[in-house]
Amino acid sequence: MNGYTLYPAIDVRDGRVVRLRQGDYARETRYPDDPLAVAQRYAAAGARWLHLVDLDAARSGGYTLAPLLASIKASTALQVQTGGGVRSRADVDAMLAAGADRVVVGSLAVREPARVGEWLQCFGAQRLTVALDARADDEGRWWLPTAGWTLASGVELDALVAHYADAGLHHLLSTDIDRDGMLAGPNLALYRRIHALAPQLALQASGGVRDLADIDAAREAGCAGVVLGKSLLDGRFELAAALPAERPC
């Protein structure tokens, strides 16, 4: 692999930086810093990318972070992938117009894969990230909930990974929902599984990262990058200490 990308994450709800535990909106931790200030801090530490999530829109639709996104782009050199509430091509257009470098499509990518596959041809593989966030059942099958992880879709992970690989996807993000916000380590078996199914995808690990060793382990499992959320916000390590992982192998 010729490089690795770290994506410090800012999840926003009601205008505040928050983290949820296992995607549960009732289990929220709020952080005191303004979202723009956090983005600027990550940029000052040397980050190249930011992962920005509108949690209100993820559940209800209607992306609300365009002003914040525009402020981040105006005040930093960060490239931003952002998502939450994408329901239409117009939503993607609006996010790109607000300054997004990549738009993350989650629930709609599960419910309407043919439609999102068409968007890949329209916008190009470098402008979209598909998020396939999953929960495992007792038999080890991975299912993809939607609407901010609140609704069961009945769609399996493996089938959609294959679909999007065939449709020309490049950037795939996947979260083991049960590890999100839990600081339990990334699910390396999940990422090895996805990498084996579609090694051509630039896979982003999300959920559970505790320390620098987890960042290295995700890379060794076949990931092209990792999203860093609670571990940075809680000060478990400094972003500057993790950034050398972005150097090529």
Automatic annotation (TrEMBL):
Its EC number is 5.3.1.16. InterPro entries: Aldolase_TIM (IPR013785), His_biosynth (IPR006062), HisA/PriA (IPR023016), Isoase_HisA-like (IPR044524), RibuloseP-bd_barrel (IPR011060). Transmembrane segments: none annotated. The keyword Mitochondrion does not apply. Pathway: Amino-acid biosynthesis; L-histidine biosynthesis; L-histidine from 5-phospho-alpha-D-ribose 1-diphosphate: step 4/9. Keywords: Amino-acid biosynthesis, Cytoplasm, Histidine biosynthesis, Isomerase. Pfam families: His_biosynth (PF00977). It is an enzyme of class 5 (isomerase). Gene3D superfamilies: Aldolase class I. Belongs to the HisA/HisF family. HAMAP family: HisA (MF_01014). This is 1-(5-phosphoribosyl)-5-[(5-phosphoribosylamino)methylideneamino] imidazole-4-carboxamide isomerase. It comes from Lysobacter koreensis.
